[in-house]
Amino acid sequence: MHELSIVMNIIDIATEQVQQAHARKVDSIELEIGTMAGVEMDALDFSWSAAVRNTVLSDAERVVDRVPAIARCGNCGLEFRVSEPFMPCPACDNVLVEYLQGKELRVKSLVVS
Ligand SMILES: [Zn+2]
């Protein structure tokens, strides 16, 4: 399950930040996850609760910002909200679109103590 490797990666980042700040644990963590980042939120929740035990994130409050996907059409230049993967341009049906946002997958902020 690829969500588990995402969580493991987040734990690595958080552990590093806690060490750098000479702190002991993370109080809260804010994640930015685009709707087209390919992350299943249910799977992420499940992996999270299993993986964070006995880590710096075990008691952390988790906030997830979902970033809506927006693409620009390579043909007519229209910018539109993407509601499903590989959605063509609603104006000209072109499938060559560039994602402007929505593929984010990152730790936005961490509060340590
Ligand atoms: Zn178009």
Can you walk me through this structure?
By secondary structure, the protein is α+β, with helices and mostly antiparallel strands. The chain is 27% helix and 32% strand. The protein is built from two helices and six strands, in the order αβαβββββ. The strands form two sheets. It has a three-stranded mixed β-sheet, with helices on one face. Helix 1 packs across helix 2. It starts with a helix and ends with a strand.
- Give the N-terminus to C-terminus distance in angstroms: 31 Å
Name the poorly predicted regions: none
Principal-axis shape = elongated
What Rg is obtained from the alpha carbons, in whole angstroms?
17 Å
Query: What is the string of SSEs from the N terminus onward?
Result: HEHEEEEE
Count of distinct structural domains: 1
CATH-level-2 architecture = 2-Layer Sandwich
**Proportion of residues in extended strands:** 25-35%
Average pLDDT rating:
96
* Largest sheet: spatial strand order: 2-1-6
- Which class in CATH terms? Alpha Beta
Strand-pairing-aware structural class: alpha+beta
Helix residue percentage:
25-40%
Write a concise keyword list for the protein shown above.
about 110 residues, alpha+beta, hypothetical protein PF0899 fold, binds zinc ion
Topology record:
Layout: H1 2-20, E1 26-34, H2 41-51, E2 61-67, E3 70-73, E4 79-81, E5 97-101, E6 105-112
State the gist of this model:
The chain has 113 residues and is an alpha+beta fold. The protein has 2 helices and 6 strands. It is elongated and about 55 Å long.
